[in-house]
Amino acid sequence: MQLEGKAICLGADIDTDVIIAGRYLRTKDRQVWVEHVFEDLDPSLGRRLPGSVIVAGRNFGCGSSREQAAVALKEAGLVAVVAPSFSRIFFRNAINVGLPVVEGECRCASGDLVLIDLDEGVVSCGGARTLIRPLTTRMQEILRAGGLAPLWRAKK
Amino acid sequence: MRTLSERILGARAGDYVDAAIDRAFVHDGTGVLTLEAWKDMGCPGLAHPERLYILFDHIVPANNSTTAALQKELREFARKQGIHFSDIGGGICHQLMGEGEVLPGEIVVGADSHSCTLGAFGAFATGVGATDMAAIWASGMTWLRVPETIGVRLSGSFTGAVEAKDLALTVVSKLGMDGASYQALEYIGDGTKSLSMEGRLTITNLATEAGAKTGLFYADDVTRAYLLEFGHRVEPQVPEPCTYTNEVSIDLGDLEPVVAVPPRVDSARPVESLEGLHLDQVFVGTCTNGRFEDLQRFASIVRGKKVVVRTIVIPSSAEVLRKAADKGVLSTIVAAGCTIGTPGCGPCLGAHMGVIGEGEVCLSTANRNFTNRMGIGGSIYLASVATAAASALKGVLTVPEVNHAT
């Protein structure tokens, strides 16, 4: 699985409250989450997500287990998130909704091209290649299917 | 020679296991998305409805038509499928699961990050998202990576007004917000003996704030006595010598009342260093500090006095509320001028009553102080019940007096 997008650089400890605030959770309308994604961090950020790769610091997605955070990023058109580490629930949620998440170190310059090769286990940021922590076979299978629900349907 | 997590999951740290889940719960917030994911999977049936729980606590009672409609669907689903169900006002999911449901040695998952709370019983308890939960509904199983473990070795006992929350915030600050990522915390040592079951639940509740997968206490005489009240006879879990990736030692007698400064939970500072900070609201409750002991401690401090800042007190369950009413704790709190909310999460996540305004400061006994969490432009300071009570009486952040905790 190969992915590419333009880098959006974020810091460490990006919590799920700032990805999508609690006040927008009481709906099934995914468009609401897309409209308000990152509103409390930077209201302009949501518009830049389509075709982009977030390159963040440690502990991305910490805090609440709300899967709406991963869904909002995926539905907004984000290609992937690269970070040295993720909060574990967000990490599972992202894989389960088909949003590639990659544990790796990447020197981030806003707008640089980020290339991710999940099969080779490498990420390239602005031309500099580094190794990523490989995803398990099961995680890759879920991602290839576009998420756990589509995989489940396919296996039925 | 295994950690408690390794014993319960039956494999070594770093291994992946497919675990049969003993109990799985969602609340009204995550339940909606779980049901959507379950439908998206093609309504695959429920492997063990008797192991499933739907517990309304986030927006209770419903605040508008949209929420009411979402809750109606989930309520009807629970009843039709024979899933354990608790309606509005029943209480917070983590509290209800701790009222005689979860037992030592079980594998428990909740669709909520604070599901690690139940590790206080010597269970392996952790949070998952909605899609993972939908797969658990369908199969009764989930995959787990057996975590490495950090040992938190406790000695001594609390002195003065220090309580479990001060320890919990201190541990998170020592480790950092991701200091225990992908790992479990085991609370060990002689100091654990002096901690009540309710205090232990406060401590494991904050394990996730250090990134931990769960926090565990070994079941002992305290656990046994607590669960006996609910008619369960359980055996103690005897620790084996084992290897921790890291060990943190804390003498409970060295601790002092602390406050976590926004927007980070790992920012504990002595209350004394910020004494006098203006407060607009005090909030006592949540899955961290809304238990009977908490309300009792709060009442003991405000008894016969009046709070001078708006103060919201929310029992964590109907049972806690009933007990508080029976023992006169509730009337003491109301007489002191506090407002009582419906058992549930209250304003902790800023989605229901008790939201704070732009520029306002709330002193809260909850577990998160992230940006805008309790309301846009508001700030949240996290502290113990004793600190909240002492501060409510002064209207500013106040160090609780030594005899308050007794």
Description:
The complex is a heterodimer of chains A (156) and B (406). With 156 residues, chain A is an alpha/beta fold. Chain A has one domain: Aconitase, domain 4, CATH 3.20.19. Chain A contains 7 helices and 7 strands. Chain A has helices at residues 16-19, 30-36, 45-48, 68-75, 88-97, 137-145, 148-155, and strands at residues 2-9, 52-55, 80-83, 101-103, 113-117, 122-125, 128-131. In chain A, helix 2 packs across helix 4 (68-75). Chain A starts with a strand and ends with a helix. The mean pLDDT of chain A is 95. Chain B is of the alpha/beta class and 406 residues long. Chain B folds into 3 domains: 14-145, Aconitase, domain 3, CATH 3.30.499; 149-254, Aconitase, Domain 2 (3-Layer(aba) Sandwich), CATH 3.40.1060; 259-405, Aconitase, domain 3, CATH 3.30.499.10. Chain B is built from 13 helices and 18 strands. Chain B has helices spanning 4-9, 28-40, 65-81, 93-97, 130-139, 164-175, 197-205, 221-228, 286-289, 292-302, 318-326, 329-335, 385-394, and strands spanning 16-20, 23-27, 52-55, 84-86, 107-110, 124-127, 141-145, 149-155, 184-188, 214-217, 246-251, 258-260, 268-270, 281-284, 310-313, 339-340, 361-364, 379-382. In chain B, helix 2 (28-40) links the parallel strand 2 and strand 3. Chain B is globular, with a radius of gyration of 20 Å. Chain A binds chain B through residues 13, 15, 17-18, 21-23, 25-28, 40-41, 58-59, 62-68, 70-71, 85, 87-90, 92-93, 96-97, 136, 138, 147-149, 152-153, 156, and chain B through 16, 29-30, 32-33, 36-37, 40-42, 44, 59, 66-67, 70, 111-113, 115, 127-132, 134-135, 138, 143, 177-178, 181-182, 211, 213, 264, 349-351, 368, 370-373, 376.
List the helices and strands and how they pair.
The complex is a heterodimer of chains A (156) and B (406).
Chain A: E1 2-9, H1 16-19, H2 30-36, H3 45-48, E2 52-55, H4 68-75, E3 80-83, H5 88-97, E4 101-103, E5 113-117, E6 122-125, E7 128-131, H6 137-145, H7 148-155
Helix pairs in contact in A: 2-4, 4-5, 6-7
Chain B: H1 4-9, E1 16-20, E2 23-27, H2 28-40, E3 52-55, H3 65-81, E4 84-86, H4 93-97, E5 107-110, E6 124-127, H5 130-139, E7 141-145, E8 149-155, H6 164-175, E9 184-188, H7 197-205, E10 214-217, H8 221-228, E11 246-251, E12 258-260, E13 268-270, E14 281-284, H9 286-289, H10 292-302, E15 310-313, H11 318-326, H12 329-335, E16 339-340, E17 361-364, E18 379-382, H13 385-394
